[in-house]
Amino acid sequence: MTEYKAMTREQLIAEQAALQKRFDDYKAMGLALDMSRGKPSKEQLDLSMDLLNCTDYIEDGIDLRNYGIIDGIPSCKKLFADLLGVEAKNILLGPNASLSLMFDYIAQAYSHGVMGSTPWSKLPEVKFLCPVPGYDRHFTILEYFNIKMINIDMTPDGPDMDAVEELIEDESVKGMFCVPKYSNPQGITYTDEVVERIAALKPAAEDFRIIWDNAYIIHEIYEEGDELLNIFDLLPKYCNEDMVIEVCSTSKMTFPGAGISALAASDDNIADILKRLNCQTISYDKMNQHRHVEFFGDVDGIKAHMKKHAAIMKPKFEMVLRHLENELGGRGIASWIEPRGGYFISLDVMDGCAKRVGELCKEAGVVLTNVGATYPYGKDPRNSNIRIAPSLPPVDELDLAAQILCVSVKLACIEALLS
Predict the structure, then answer these.
(1) N or C, where is the chain less crowded by C-beta within 10 Å?
(2) 330 Cβ partners below 8 Å, 6+ apart?
(3) pLDDT value, residue 54
């Protein structure tokens, strides 16, 4: 297949005309297709309806319908402890979204500091390292608190650790957000070497914290999923037990709007967070925690449940990847990673073309994640990254959406080449 850059102007114009015909045909269909966010589909949500069958809310003689047990019920803490590979005493259970846990932790550091440190709000400048492309919600938290974000390029192995190790010599750098398994949006799992280097960091700031957002810890698409080192096994080796705050949730296991979030951290971090929680809440939803324990049973139950999710997700991912390969492969205008799990496919198009792709998709009735959202402040320096979320649309709609996306990419890149 001939690369577009190797085509003559006349060949490009002929290709553009054929693509425009296809585009106009799609546009005439009056479609309204959504690939903007990583929402589970109805079929996935239906997998968890038995969660609602629980009727007994007594555990160890305690009525879970009442106040109390601020850190979460023991059985559910154990479930998450087994999932994350830590002790139950190092688990706090939260509301339905781990995003709330992350926001609250940054807010706590901002207003009251970290374990007795100067509150970040009282410092001249606070900076955070942000692997890019990355998760837009991380960036919006930091922007809300006026924390300066510094781009860290992602490599096939994880964040550029040479850059990280250099930047943490600055005491105003207070932390880093990470999605270490099936990163959002690229689907990269950090290698053992990268996890080890992160665990071994020696930041100038004593209150430096890594937010280890393990959102896709068990979200495999294929039977042979990626393996991620447990960073909590490594931290004591470098006397860094307090450096990592890990979060995860059941949002994409059961019901996103009615799940459970969990935070794992050192003894001292847990104690520090509990001081805030004792002022912030009486308790989170213990009935929901109990329902999840009844539904899953144990970690093996979670794994069996997530295989059902994989059976729904795998054909959707493979369909999108097949369209990318058939339409864009060999054209020299796009590249992508084939993830083994997670919720997204990251597509990089020719520099300067991503926003135009988004405009064309919208014109033809396909909604993508806002182009640029995978970078701090919504500013992709190369204007090249597009996050694809295949999970929500039914297969027939996804098929059309992927075709329209590919045609839009080719049209946008030809426009750029002809200009």
Answers:
(1) C
(2) 1, 2, 3
(3) 93
The partner residues of 59 in beta bridges, in order of sequence, read: 62
The angle that helices 136-144 and 98-112 make with each other, rounded to 10 degrees, is 30
- Tokens 């692997």 identify what position? 131
Alpha carbon distances (Å) from 344 to 74, 160, 313, 347:
33, 21, 11, 10
Contact 73, 59 (CB under 8 A): yes
For helices 74-84 and 299-328, the axis angle rounded to 10 degrees is: 50
User: Which tokens is 248 given?
Assistant: 């995860």
Distance in angstroms between the alpha carbons of the first and the last residue of the chain: 23
Q: Say how far apart CA 173 and CA 142 lie, in whole Å.
A: 13
Positive or negative: CA dihedral 283, 284, 287, 290: negative
For residues 188 and 182, give the distance between their C-alpha atoms in angstroms, rounded to a whole number. Answer: 5
The sign of the torsion formed by the CA atoms of 177, 314, 403, 321 equals positive
How many residues make up the chain in this entry?
419
The owner of tokens 């006397």 is: 239
Q: Check: CB of residue 71 under 8 Å from CB of residue 78.
A: no
Contact 328, 409 (CB under 8 A): yes
In 3D space, the residue among 156, 170, 226, 179 whose CA is nearest the CA of residue 201 turns out to be 170
**Predicted pLDDT at 271:** 98
For the chain, which ranges sit under pLDDT 70? none
- Report DSSP state, residue 377: G
Write out the E strands in 56-119.
58-59, 62-63, 91-93
Sign of CA dihedral 92, 94, 99, 105: negative
CA distances from 73 to 64, 93, 264, 265, 298 (A): 8, 8, 15, 17, 15
Type of residue found at 361:
C
CA dist 310 and 44 (Å) reads: 9
| Alpha-carbon separation of residue 416 from 9, 333, 362, 419 (angstroms) | 12, 11, 19, 5
Q: Which of 416, 407, 418 is nearest to 29 (CA)?
A: 407
Q: What is the pLDDT of residue 189?
A: 98
